[in-house]
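Exercise 7b. Backbone tokens:
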């Protein structure tokens, strides 16, 4: 069984050295890239390239993609169904997981479902307040790659936020929106943490939908999805059931450019009309108390993990430990310099 309780052998403490794992594909993806800017600030000096220990943070990476030998430290990852469920044994150290659905799927205690670490990004980076104008739209990175959403967004009078761009630029772009339409889960998560109202766009590919509920359950939310049609034939081909198979991806990738040329003005115009309709939907935002609870519990877990990373969360103080007590500590996650 995964060690969500104390390990028998001694922890390496705050001087632990681990490799920061993130999913990497042909293009970068905002949610996965958030790992590179969040964790080094929350856990300075914690990471190196030692392959003997993997740190799994933001992303649906809690599955069987990882080799059996390394120790896997889990801090907020989720199970997304992209790979088979992991065999949780003594090499897995679970501090917390993304949500209750991940916990239930993997047979973990519900108390470990603290939330998605991306909710910590705005406070950890100390992002300054910005003037908010206009409506932004963040497609899923696969939709951005295969679709014609830049053209559709321009026709709809909506500002496209490409999830493949630099994550800091994306954070600032979200912060400048008065409303965000997002097919990308982490677009909505970060908008919610920044207190930017958001409208959930149902992911075109069915496999990307379940993780929304996993996160939303921790925030007392039920996403009200709005639908957008595919904006190109290449995008449509990638969203049908056959398109989710790895063999289909292998065929589609070299033909993507050819499929894109078949995209008609009609498809783009239809997508633009749907964007305009989505912009009229009632936006969502978690309650301040739900956000504060989620952030506080995760920061308590980060504080404990910094001290003894190879021991699970239940070894330490209750997750109801106050934010004030962490602020008073000289290793508090709250004592961070802002990024201008």
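Sequence design result:
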């Amino acid at each position: 069984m995964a060690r969500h309780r104390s390990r028998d052998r001694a922890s390496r403490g705050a001087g632990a050295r681990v490799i920061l794992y993130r999913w990497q594909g042909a293009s970068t993806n905002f949610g996965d890239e958030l790992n590179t800017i969040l964790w080094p600030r929350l856990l300075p000096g914690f990471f190196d390239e030692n392959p003997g220990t993997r740190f799994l943070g933001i992303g649906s990476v809690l599955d069987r993609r990882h080799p059996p030998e390394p120790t896997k430290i889990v801090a907020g990852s989720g199970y997304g169904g992209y790979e088979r469920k992991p065999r949780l044994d003594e090499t897995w150290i679970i501090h917390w997981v993304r949500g209750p659905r991940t916990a239930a799927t993997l047979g973990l205690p519900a108390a470990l479902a603290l939330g998605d670490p991306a909710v910590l990004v705005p406070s950890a980076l100390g992002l300054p307040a910005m003037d908010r104008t206009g409506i932004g739209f963040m497609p899923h990175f696969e939709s951005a790659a295969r679709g014609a959403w830049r053209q559709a967004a321009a026709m709809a009078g909506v500002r496209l936020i490409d999830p493949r761009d630099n994550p800091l630029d994306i954070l600032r772009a979200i912060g400048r929106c008065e409303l965000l339409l997002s097919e990308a889960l982490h677009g909505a998560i970060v908008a919610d943490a920044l207190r930017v109202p958001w409208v959930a766009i149902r992911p075109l590919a069915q496999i990307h939908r379940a993780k929304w509920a996993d996160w939303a359950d921790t925030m007392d939310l039920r996403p009200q999805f709005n639908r957008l049609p595919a904006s190109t034939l290449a995008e449509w081909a990638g969203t049908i059931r056959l398109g989710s198979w790895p063999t289909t991806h292998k065929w589609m990738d070299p033909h993507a450019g050819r499929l894109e040329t078949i995209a008609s003005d009609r498809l783009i115009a239809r997508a633009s009309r749907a964007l305009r309709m989505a912009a009229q939907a009632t936006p969502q935002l978690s309650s301040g108390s739900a956000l504060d609870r989620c952030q506080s519990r995760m920061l308590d877990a980060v504080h404990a993990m910094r001290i003894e990373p190879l021991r699970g969360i239940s070894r330490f103080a209750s997750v109801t430990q106050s934010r004030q007590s962490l602020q008073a500590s000289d290793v508090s996650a709250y004592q961070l310099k802002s990024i201008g």
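Instructor comment: The first helix runs from residue 30 to 42. The longest strand covers residues 71-77.
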